[in-house]
Design brief:
The complex is a heterodimer.
Chain A lengths: L10 H8 L12 H18 L3 E4 L2 E4 L9 H12 L5 H22 L3 E7 L4 E7 L2 H17 L5 H13 L2 H4 L7 H13 L2 H19 L4
Antiparallel strand pairs in A: 1-2, 3-4
Helix pairs in contact in A: 1-2, 1-6, 2-4, 2-6, 2-9, 4-9, 6-8, 6-9
Chain B lengths: L12 H9 L3 H9 L4 H15 L5 H23 L8 H8 L2 H38 L5 H18 L5 H24 L21 H12 L15 H31 L4 H7 L4 H9 L2 H36 L17 H21 L3 H34 L6 H24 L1 H5 L7 H26 L1 H5 L28 H5 L8
Helix pairs in contact in B: 2-10, 3-9, 3-10, 3-11, 3-15, 4-9, 4-10, 4-15, 4-16, 5-6, 5-15, 6-7, 6-13, 6-14, 6-15, 6-18, 7-13, 7-14, 8-10, 8-13, 9-15, 9-16, 12-13, 13-14, 15-16
Classes of the chains: A mainly alpha, B mainly alpha.
Chain lengths: 218, 520
């Protein structure tokens, strides 16, 4: 087993890899949920880094964007800094537009994904494919172990489990029967409530996916 | 939705980017227009109505009720600007009156849209079976065709595949052009040599049993209410949604009145009832064959067939959305409020409606009941009657809602129009209840004439009792009624307020007791 693959990685990266089908490498999550889940994942990273927070349904940048750090984070902070008046739903919808490509590019940089050109009917387009499919399945395995432990994990794992639940990914990724799964997941989600910013992000992702159904949005 | 900092001189990059994703005016209007189904309404509902209760004045009823619904829409679209889940009638009633009545209304809506949906299968089966017999000489029962349509809709619902809106748009455009040509030619070939306007004379509408005509016409207009589904995702929703709603009403009212009138002219106002009784399924098309030729009649049949299918898909999606919202709010089992990860479909809600459709088709097939009269017409118009109840409830809800706070709406939209609509629709309701035996064409003391409308009373009572139970035993569920997508679900717990600013460490101690035994 590649020891590196079971280490925690950034929330959005982890989410992206878990959203891929272990056999085909294609997303097993519909576009809208993928975008919203990744946008929230990136925002959770910033919240846990204490560079951003959520208050009264608004995003608040806690640091001035100075160009240092992950370019995705920098861009997001710049947006939040420039237009502080949007509510959370607007921000998530906005970042969801670019989150899938942004996170995929980051994973290419980290060596988890590679870009391949597929030949379409009229034009070929780039698709991201996992470099090593085993790494993809190990990400799910890792979170399964985290849940199976039955204790509440660190914030990044809490956020990740929350996002998996909010997007409906939790069921497809759990391959082994985890004893008392529902109780363990409920405990983790319950812990999230005590972190209002993370909770607000995850709660909003779920509401937006549901709003897509009611508004017949894909 | 907020759109950036209003004081900022530079346009908001965020809003601009999101605006690209929003539905344009044309898309919303196209969507609203697809509720128009002139062939379905005239060849199906109107001819069945003439065969059943023979009121010649249906064309006038389309005009009168079209106007009533336009008045209704003033309050409806005004309220759509202010509430969540604006695509669902019960949401208006929950916001306007109270959540208890909202739940009662939600069950009425579920029953009504389910009846409208399954009713379509009857006529779909009959038309499809007729086409197969005529063109391919295949002798296939109506219910076989109905089951094929049912299966397709089941798959599309489960995978969240929509019929391409452009295809629907093109088919509708062809249908409208065809119907208009039909009308001109029919008016040019009047029975007895002169064009009769008897269909628009009040004495030919306001006869005993006029309520049956009203119920039919309300059924025909069903779907005009759809545009607020996009209240939160359309560009310039404040104007687009009302425009789409009024335009859909106008197109429906004009096409339905004109086409049913043309039919009375070419067949003769005195002859339509008899002719419809002789040929209840295909009168419109045999007339087309006489006015044009057999090929044209076949084209019309095909257009009707696709239109029926599209209508069944649309009603299926309405039911699934309703069940999904109610599942999310915890009024119905939570599992109805879940989506499939891969497709985003409200899978359980969709499958539930599919099962209901299957049961109804199978029961009708086994009992040998007439698919046009007893499935399409009975359940369809009873579904329309349910919509009528919701329209009245929504009008009253709008009066109360804006009575608490005018929210910047004009006195016409918030008071005068809803009051006028409530009174007019209340009269329509009274007449319809009185005329239910006429509508179903049964004896005035036949049990079915009170059982079918009585189902709504039963659903309403069940809903109210359930809501009262929720209010006393599960107040957190009760409080979420009418919130739609924003409702608390079972999975992600709600937080009361986001007040904590310090990041605490995860409190493992206090939750591990609830977490059960760790897995071995």
């Amino acid at each position: 087993m590649n020891s590196r693959s079971l280490e925690p990685i950034a929330i959005a990266d982890d989410f992206y890899l878990m959203a891929l089908d272990e056999r085909t490498g294609r997303p097993r999550l519909h576009n809208r949920a993928m975008g919203l889940g990744l946008a929230a994942g990136l925002l959770c990273e910033l919240v846990i880094d204490e560079r951003l927070t959520v208050k009264n349904d608004r995003l608040i940048a806690l640091v001035r964007p100075d160009g240092a750090g992950d370019p995705i984070h920098v861009r997001m902070l710049e947006h939040v800094h420039a237009e502080p008046d949007h509510d959370l739903a607007v921000w998530l919808s906005f970042f969801a537009q670019s989150a899938v490509d942004a996170v995929a590019d980051r994973l290419v940089g980290l060596g988890y994904l590679t870009v391949e050109m597929t030949r379409g009917l009229l034009k070929s387009k780039p698709v991201y494919v996992p470099v090593d499919m085993v790494q993809v399945s190990w990400r799910s395995l890792r979170i399964e172990q985290v849940i199976a432990r039955g204790s509440v994990p660190e914030w990044p794992e809490c956020a990740l489990v929350g996002l998996l639940c909010a997007t409906g990914l939790i069921e497809p990724i759990l391959v082994n029967n985890v004893v008392d799964l529902n109780a363990h997941v409920a405990a983790i989600l319950g812990a999230l409530v005590s972190d209002p910013p993370l909770h607000a992000l995850i709660f909003q992702v779920e509401a937006l996916i549901a709003a897509g159904v009611l508004g017949s949005r894909k | 939705m907020p759109s950036g900092n209003p004081s900022s001189a530079t346009p908001s990059a965020v809003s601009a980017s999101l605006a690209k994703d929003r539905l344009g005016v044309f898309s919303v209007i196209m969507f609203a227009m697809t509720a128009a189904a002139p062939l379905l309404v005239v060849s199906g509902l109107v001819v069945s109505g003439w065969a059943g209760f023979g009121i010649v004045g249906l064309p006038l009823a389309f005009v009168v009720l079209g106007l009533v619904l336009a008045v209704f829409s003033a309050g409806y679209v005004a309220m759509a600007r202010h509430i969540t889940n604006a695509g669902a009638f019960y949401s208006y009633i929950a916001h306007g009156t109270n959540k208890t009545l909202g739940v009662g209304a939600s069950l009425i809506a579920l029953l009504a849209y389910n009846m409208l949906q399954v009713g379509i299968y009857g006529f779909f089966g009959v038309i499809g079976s007729g086409l197969l017999a005529d063109k391919l000489h295949w002798d296939v029962s109506w219910w076989v065709v109905a089951l094929v349509g049912w299966l397709l809709i089941a798959i599309m619902g489960a995978l969240r595949v929509d019929i391409n809106s452009k295809i629907i748009g093109v088919l509708l455009a062809i249908e409208i052009v065809f119907v208009l040509i039909y009308d001109v030619v029919a008016l040019g070939h009047p029975d007895g040599g002169s064009v009769s306007v008897a269909a628009f004379e009040p004495k030919n509408l306001f006869v005993a049993g006029v309520g049956a005509a009203f119920a039919l016409v309300i059924t025909a207009f069903t779907g005009f209410e759809a545009a607020p589904v996009f209240a939160e995702e359309a560009k310039h929703a404040r104007k687009t949604i009302p425009a789409a709603t009024y335009l859909a009403l106008a197109v429906m009212g004009i096409l339905y009145a004109l086409t049913s009138w043309a039919l009375t002219v070419t067949i003769g106002p005195g002859n339509v009832a008899g002719a419809a009784q002789k040929d209840p399924n295909f009168l419109f098309f045999s007339t087309a064959a006489r006015l044009f030729n057999g090929g044209t009649a076949d084209l019309a049949l095909l257009l009707l067939f696709t239109s029926l299918f599209a209508a069944a898909v649309s009603f299926h999606n309405s039911v699934a959305r309703y069940s999904f919202a109610l599942g999310r709010e915890g009024v119905l089992p939570r599992v109805l409020g879940t989506t499939n990860a891969r497709t985003g479909a409200p899978l359980v809600a969709s499958v539930t409606q599919t099962v209901i459709g299957l049961i109804v088709i199978v029961v009708y097939a086994m009992a040998g009941w007439d698919p046009t009269q007893k499935l399409f017409f009975w359940l369809g118009t009873t579904g329309g009657f349910g919509i009528l109840i919701l329209l009245i409830g929504t009008s009253i809800a709008a009066i109360i809602y804006f009575g608490r706070d005018s929210r910047g709406e004009s006195i016409w939209s918030r008071l005068i129009a809803p009051v006028l609509a409530a009174v007019a629709l209340g009269y329509v309701f009274y007449q319809t209840v009185k005329a239910f035996p006429n509508l179903l064409v049964v004896a005035s003391d036949a049990p079915i004439a009170w059982i079918l409308p009585g189902l709504y009373a039963a659903m309403f009572v069940i809903g109210v009792l359930w809501a009262l139970y929720l209010r006393s035993s599960r107040p957190e569920v009760y409080n979420a009624i009418g919130l739609g997508a924003k409702a608390v679900t079972g999975l992600i717990p709600a937080a009361d307020a986001y007040v904590v600013e310090q990041r605490p460490a995860p409190d493992a101690e206090s939750v591990s007791e609830d977490a059960g035994t760790p897995a071995s």
